[in-house]
Task: inverse folding
């Protein structure tokens, strides 16, 4: 793959497949893959639910902003972000300006199915996760679309097909 291609930043909701796809794209492109949530966990030695419990969402978002700034400044990487990374303006700017941002669009029904048994998502530890995911989508979808250079549907769940769409987009110049 052309080393002049920009870094790839994957944004979107919980259950979109950002981490799985990012790992695969890193292999295909021969680039380092980073998952911002995993970097936070590795550096703090604490899982995300614990950070939310101890520091609140605001404390977690502060940590996330530092990591996003650091990782988006690296050359030629593939980065998967947490679903809420787009909530802070600095993150939005870094994700849009420092590489090519791909919004992995995933309908709420698909998110519910993919996250149903995941206990590592603090915002979904509620009796009605579908309502939470719907509200998050209502708020975040316009932000994802504002940041993204490309919107890629992930409903099919076919990793190679989604990766091929991203690779095709990377080979095209951005419209002026």
Result:
């Amino acid at each position: 793959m052309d080393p002049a291609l920009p870094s790839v930043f994957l944004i979107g909701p919980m259950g979109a497949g950002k981490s799985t796809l990012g790992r695969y794209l890193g292999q295909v492109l021969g680039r380092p893959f980073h998952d911002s949530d995993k970097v936070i966990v590795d550096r703090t030695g604490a899982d995300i639910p614990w950070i939310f419990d101890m520091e609140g969402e605001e404390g977690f978002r502060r940590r996330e902003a530092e990591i996003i700034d650091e990782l988006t400044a690296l050359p030629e990487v593939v980065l998967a972000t947490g679903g809420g990374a787009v909530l802070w303006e600095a993150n939005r700017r870094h994700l849009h300006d420092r590489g090519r941002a791909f919004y992995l669009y995933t309908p709420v029904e698909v998110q519910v199915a993919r996250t149903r048994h995941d206990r590592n998502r603090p915002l979904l530890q509620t009796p009605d996760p579908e309502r939470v995911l719907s509200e998050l989508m209502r708020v975040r979808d316009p932000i994802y679309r504002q940041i993204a250079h490309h919107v890629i549907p992930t409903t099919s769940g076919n990793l190679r097909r989604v990766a091929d769409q991203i690779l095709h987009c990377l080979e095209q110049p951005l419209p002026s």
